[in-house]
């Protein structure tokens, strides 16, 4: 049965009486051009290892296996495992890991399959959308093990990742991720490329974790508190943000911003990552 056509996916699921699990983000890709595009965008070098998040019925796995030295395919849903196993068994370089990508110990339970502990891997996924942000932060946590990630996500989340200051999409996610990774769009994908059809369109994004943050901060906790406060109250001026977050007294807050060349009446949503870092460093 073809695991990347609507009829194939339906037949495969029906063969075990399984329904797609909406809560687990089970929208299977049924467009081979898109599957090929994701695998190609991953630029898998010969001999490189790949981690696939959410293998589902193996639609993407089939495109990754021939390109990679090894694929560690992670899938949480035990009901899908019997449907996935025959495919996995047909490749000698695919390992199936049953578990939750957010609670698995990546070092001990995933990277362990790639013999060299210094080896960087590629991550590929048609993500379960309900956990896109936590997965991105997990990838950034493991920046020393991940060369790049090619991820299908909800279009709106991709827009937030790539947003410019002063736009409505620019926010906490943009600032936190852009300090630690380079993000670029690979392709827009219509909702009609999935079965079942989701309520949203998608974007494939390339995320390259940086070895070092693009902007250094003295105290990560202060930077995080500042950025969170700025976007919790998007309409407040930076002057008010500093005061309300308890980061500075009213008079000092104004002086700090002016001394950094930042107009105190500006809203946080207009500040660049560098400007947030300057303020955080002055407060640290
Ligand atoms: N890779 C397949 C494809 O492209 O057709 C399936 C993608 S589907 C959007 C997302 C997959 O992630 C589902 O198979 C779902 O069961 C799995 N998944 C959901 N939450 C997960 C988690 N926390 N850890 C690992 N896999 C998860």
How does this structure look, described?
The protein is built from twelve helices and nine strands. Strand 3, helix 4 and strand 4 form a beta-alpha-beta unit. Helix 10 (238-244) crosses helix 11 (250-259). The chain has two domains: 6-209, Vaccinia Virus protein VP39 (Rossmann fold); 220-283, Helicase, Ruva Protein, domain 3. The protein is elongated. The protein has helices at residues 6-15, 32-41, 61-64, 81-89, 106-110, 132-141, 155-161, 172-178, 220-232, 238-244, 250-259, 273-283, and strands at 28-29, 49-53, 70-75, 94-98, 121-126, 146-154, 181-189, 194-195, 202-209. A seven-stranded mixed β-sheet has the order 4-3-2-5-6-9-7, sandwiched between helices. The chain has a two-stranded antiparallel sheet with strand order 1-8. It is an alpha/beta fold and 284 residues long. The site of S-adenosylmethionine (SAM) has 23 residues, from strand 1 and strand 3.
| Low-pLDDT runs | none
Q: Give the count of structural domains.
A: 2
Look at the structure and give the mean pLDDT: 96
If you consult CATH, what is the topology of the largest domain? Rossmann fold
